[in-house]
């Protein structure tokens, strides 16, 4: 029995559609998850409903779905938090007290209220000041070398030892100036304060020394 032209056309159309469908599935399997291929069969009644017209065509139509790529969501960069220990000002001013440990020639050897301050010119160089109010007013001026100690991982400054030398001024005694040696530590108290401990040794006479311990808390400033 010889197949008519309509039957032959149907076989060829079915074979072509099957080949295209298999090719589409193979392409879909080889593409990444963000893209896809596919085919859908649209009947004449579907076309008529979508266009509002009628047609005598009885053959289904094979429609290719174009590949669509889903854009990947970019990763949001993690911004590290600002560490307050890294932005502390090098300078401060505050209040404290002096504990006299030895000597009677100056206020270093007596108890007194103190205004403490520090002017930081660089990370390793500063001027430590103190004004002591007692029986007499005494001012200490010390140029200091700073040795900040930082954590190895974050670089946070946890303590700043310092040592230096200067003068001890006594305005009530005709501004007499005596040699002074000082050493201590500044401890950052984030984000606004710094604690300070200082040991001052003055030499008012050739055979005498005055010794005092200063404890104070300063408010951080950014002068330089």
Q: Would you mind describing this structure in some detail?
A:
The chain has 224 residues and is of the alpha+beta class. The protein folds into 2 domains: 5-65, no CATH class; 88-221, Porin. 15% of the residues lie in helices and 49% in strands. It is built from 2 helices and 11 strands. The strands form 2 sheets. It has an 8-stranded antiparallel beta barrel. A two-stranded antiparallel ribbon has the order 1-2. It is elongated, with a radius of gyration of 43 Å. Residues 19-37 and 73-88 have low confidence and may be disordered.
What is the β-strand count?
A: 11
Q: Into which percentage range does the β-strand content fall?
A: over 45%
Q: Name the overall outline.
A: elongated
Q: Count the domains.
A: 2
Strands across the major sheet, in which order? Answer: 3-4-5-6-8-9-10-11
CATH C-level of the largest domain: Mainly Beta
Poorly predicted residue ranges: 19-37, 73-88
- What order do the SSEs take from the amino end to the carboxyl end, as H and E? HEHEEEEEEEEEE
Instruction: Report on the biggest sheet.
Output: 8 strands, antiparallel, barrel
Per CATH, the architecture of the largest domain is Beta Barrel
Mean pLDDT reading? 75
Task: Determine Rg (CA atoms, Å).
Answer: 43 Å
Structural class: alpha+beta
Number of helices: 2
CATH-defined topology of the largest domain: Porin
Helix content: 10-25%
Distance between the termini: 105 Å
């Amino acid at each position: 029995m010889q197949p008519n032209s309509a039957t032959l056309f149907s076989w060829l159309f079915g074979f072509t559609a099957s080949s295209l469908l298999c090719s589409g599935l193979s392409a879909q399997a080889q593409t990444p998850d963000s893209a896809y291929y596919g085919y859908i069969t649209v009947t004449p009644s579907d076309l008529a409903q979508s266009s509002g017209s009628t047609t005598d065509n009885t053959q289904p139509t094979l429609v290719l779905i174009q590949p669509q790529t889903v854009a990947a969501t970019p990763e949001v960069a993690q911004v590290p938090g600002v560490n307050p220990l890294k932005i502390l000002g090098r300078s401060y001013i505050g209040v404290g007290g002096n504990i006299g440990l030895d000597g009677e020639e100056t206020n270093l050897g007596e108890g007194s209220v103190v205004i403490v301050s520090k002017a930081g010119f660089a990370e390793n160089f500063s001027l430590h000041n103190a004004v002591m109010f007692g029986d007499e007013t005494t001012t200490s001026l010390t140029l200091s070398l700073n040795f900040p100690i930082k954590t190895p991982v974050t670089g946070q400054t946890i303590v700043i030892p310092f040592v230096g030398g200067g003068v001890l001024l006594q305005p009530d005694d005709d501004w007499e100036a005596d040699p002074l040696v000082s050493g201590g530590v500044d401890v950052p108290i984030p984000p606004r304060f710094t604690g300070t401990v200082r040991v001052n040794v003055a030499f008012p006479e050739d055979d005498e020394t005055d010794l005092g311990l200063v404890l104070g808390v300063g408010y951080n400033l950014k002068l330089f």
